[in-house]
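#struct-queue
[09:14] JT: dropping the first one here, sequence first, then the structure tokens:
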Amino acid sequence: MAWVETESLSFTARHEEDDEESAQRTLDALEDLRLRLEDRFDEAPGDITVVVHPTPAWLAAAHPFLPAARLATAPAGRRYLAGWAMARELHVLNDDYLDRRAAGEDSLAALRGTAERLYAQIVIGANNPSLPPPWGPRRFLRYLRWAWLVEGASQYFAGQVPLFRAAVQTRMRTGKPPAFPPTARDGVILGGTIFALLERHRGPDACQLLASRVRREGAERAIEIAFGATVREVEEEWRRYLREDVPRAGSPDQLEELHW
């Protein structure tokens, strides 16, 4: 089947003819997000190409670090690694395959918003040179160390943190308590909760500050500076927040399934 292009003001989508609706929906959402991020960041790149892949195999072949990132992520978070951001390109699955991965309404909305999270990641990387994209072995290792920040900031600035509530609740019901800050294994699911908590206590500017710099002293020091509190105090509040304040997304049978 032939590949075609669909254009908007700031983005171009490359896709198969059958995916024109997916492409147009994605471009419209990206244009809206870029307008919002232009007010928050010094740089919000345009002239970005969105490649809509017709199968997961095509997506996996788009960049060698995507399969590696999936292996480093817990099974609960892998469904949301449905695309990959490069410096000037976004690679995403078409709506058909995104919909197949969904585990409920919020999960579906989060998956349909994959391109927006990836564009937020491009913006964050453009304003924080320490973070990818672009990619390389060292930057990928840095991504693994700071996955909670990359994924969490992408969720936050794309306005999608609430869409992960059910996934957070499921994570808290299974396995060992998460590390703080979350490891790469939990970064996709729990990263956004740190930014939601930070906005509650210190406001949006503190979230932008946290996303703007990778500190040599490490993640704990970055969190202390952003929150204006010791890492122990922040951890205690974060665990209370996960336990008590994260709204449950519907009844227990609507939480994401435990088997992936």
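[09:21] JT: and here's the second one, same format:
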Amino acid sequence: MNKILTPDRLDSLDMHGVISRFAEQVRTAAEAVRNLDGLPEHDQIDSVVVLGMGGSGIAGDVLTAVGGPFVPVPMVVTKGYAPPSFVGPGTLCFAVSFSGDTEETVEAAEAAASAGARMVVVARGGALADAAPGWGAARVPLPDDIPMPRAGLGAMAVPLLLVLEQVGLFPGASGWVDAAARQLEARRDQLNLPDSKARSVARTIGRTIPLVLGGGPLGAVAAQRWQKEIQENAKAPAFASAIPEFCHNEICGWGQNGDMTRQVFTLVELRHDEEHPQETRRFDLIRDLMAEVVHEVVEVRAEGEGPLAQLFDLMLFGSYVSLHMAEQEGIDPGPIPVLDEIKRALAG
């Protein structure tokens, strides 16, 4: 694989290089959880909870979007300081924190462990790694070569899927992970080309504000990922929404001020093979309505075999778009000074 950095590109943390190695990260993560010790038996689990924030928490969203139709127990993602009140001995609880010190996740995990939940810690180190032995928790370590949580999606999301497979709640997950890695390799080769579609999409968005729209649970998570990547990498505003909910409220807000919104917003549609037939029809209707009130309508269609491959494919595409948007404006995509400032203020 060719290194895609160029001497004139501002990228102090090599976010381009890390994103281009998404497929390898997925494969490494799969190896890291093979024969993981300390997991409960299938019949001991009646619910699954994922605790996590930001670039770590989206690992739980991936799990629920991909596994929701197949996993036979309820799954909940909690992004805050407390776990759901139902958490107890029958709960398999993932505490996911890139650093291991995310204060919301640490506090929620301590409460879940005290309630008797069966804990799995996914963290590089920190307070969660220190607490794991006392909780009797299985621990999945994270690689040291990932510079930021958002760049570690594969390392944090894949273990959740494969742990559920080992427990017996998600048979066949490893096959989906393999298919996803293959698709990421194929898409990366396309997106590393100088005239890639990701670069074209970034140029079309320009300095407008993207409204990223996905269909169903899978599309909603992909749109959320695009939003966060553009915000953190390009340091630009972005919004995300999902069909069918968009058709029950948000579409009403686009009926006025078209002379202004046409200069400000670009609609990005994320399409995939798992759409409900009525979601597909809704996309067609929305496109006709929105084309009159936005700068441009752009479609990105997922490729790959299976829901996980298609979801990761859309996410990789969005990461490249966000990096190209940063490059267009001469912005270093890696550092996130405003988030660091907030953390310092809270710790003070």
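[09:30] RK: nice, looked through the second one.
[09:31] RK: The chain has two domains: 15-183, 195-328.
[09:31] JT: good to know. The CA atoms of residues 212 and 240 lie 5 Å apart.
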